[in-house]
Amino acid sequence: MACQYFAPCDHGAHSFTIAIPKVTFGRGTLSEVGARAQSLGMSDIALFTDGGLLDSEYVATVKDSLTAAGIAFQIFSEIRIEPDDFCVEQGAAFIKSGQFDGMISVGGGSVIDTAKAAVVCAKHDSPLLPFFAKPIGEGKAITEALLPHIACPTTSGTGSECTSIAVVRIRDLNTKFVIASPLMLPDQAVIDPQCCDTLPANVVASTGFDLLSHALECYTAKAYTQWAPIDNPNARPLIQGANPWSDLAATKALQIAGEYLDRGVNDASDKQARDQLMWGASLAGMAFGNSGTHMPHAMSYGITHLMRDITTDGYAVKTPFVPHGISVIVTAPACFRYTAEGAPERHLEAAGYLQADQQGAGLEDAGEVLAKRMIELMRQTHMPNGLSGVGFGESDIKAMAASSVRQTRAIANAPRESNLADLENIYADAVSYW
């Protein structure tokens, strides 16, 4: 199947590139950060975290480790969940105010993404907006060497410690876009699953569905051979479509989600499940960092752009707020019902990795089998019932589709082409599932 899916195409790419950080995984590994910083030649560090973690045992462990290694550090913690360009530019000003020779991020995807984007702005002495692709920005190239970066995730979902992208809300447009460059890939990822022991169930569910959809989108993405070739190897993006490497990481992440998501959400004492979800999140990050996501992530931006008067249990964030993983999963079953026509074998295989009931199913059933299993997992973990569960209805469909259609790279990475009317139909299918 893999050989067929990646068969050479006329006028298509003929190679793929793999890039991941040096990865350390295991309980207690945050205490190694000082020694790892030394190995990268760091002596004065910009330590990024958020206000909720500032006084946590996890940040304390990293600080103690740096102090024991004789490494100076200053902390930047003015980071909001779902960061915007203003927050990033504050972080850039912080970096420029010191003589830092390295950076460490301790937190969820919002912290790690802020650190990645802030150092780009600082090293290029530029605001953030020009680095976004046209027509949102200027498509400004990232050319300057960035600070060495050790990323330490504290949630089991985003995989940002293993990717070369950052997702940032542009305040004036009130929506999120992606900035990407191979230079933004952290040098090392230190992944300590102990950080997940105290996470509320709803946070584990949201981040867990983010990892699940990352893996699903990678495995069902358009093959790298379907993308046009880029002659300059240094100009090739790592967001390159599904490839044999991303398959390896994505399929294992799917197996982990299928076996452990329900357990990890519903039993905080199940350390095996939460450890596995943390590993699955990093695997899914490695996968999508080298392939890219597609429709569910593109459509999630319409939700977070237009969300109103809603809060989410487990998150101390002012309304309106829909966590990223929830904004992705509420449309994902509808998205995969739609995209299955473009790669039915892959969708049916993915359903199998998630432990779906495939008895009697043929390729024509792939989208429904996969959607049914996702909805089952959503119900087991108390996720919202589609768009209606996060405050949207049929009257919002056209506005959400108009917002999400701007996510052109992600939409183009899907195995089936779509237009504005298709997005409207997918949103309509996602209003409720049960």
Characterization of the model:
- It is built from 16 helices and eight strands.
- The chain has 434 residues and is of the alpha/beta class.
- It has two domains: 22-196, Rossmann fold (3-Layer(aba) Sandwich), CATH 3.40.50.1970; 200-429, Dehydroquinate synthase-like, alpha domain (Up-down Bundle).
- A six-stranded parallel sheet has the order 1-8-5-4-2-3, sandwiched between helices.
- The two termini are 34 Å apart.
At a glance:
With 434 residues, the protein is an alpha/beta fold.
Helical content band: 40-55%
Which architecture of the largest domain does the CATH hierarchy give at level 2? Up-down Bundle
Question: What is the total number of structural domains?
Answer: 2
**Arithmetic mean of pLDDT:** 94
Query: Which parts are unreliable, with pLDDT below 50 for 5 consecutive residues or more?
Result: none
Helices, by number, come to 16
> Which fold does the CATH topology of the largest domain refer to?
Dehydroquinate synthase-like, alpha domain
Annotation, overall tally of beta strands: 8
Radius of gyration: 20 Å
The 3D shape can be described as globular
- Helix and strand composition category: alpha/beta
The major pleated sheet works out as: 6 strands, parallel
Strand line-up across the major sheet: 1-8-5-4-2-3
Name of the CATH class of the largest domain: Mainly Alpha
Intertermini distance: 34 Å
Fourth-level CATH superfamily of the largest domain: Dehydroquinate synthase-like - alpha domain
Task: Return the string of H and E elements.
Answer: HEHEHEHEHEEEEHHHHHHHHHHH
Which strand-content bin applies to the residues? 5-15%
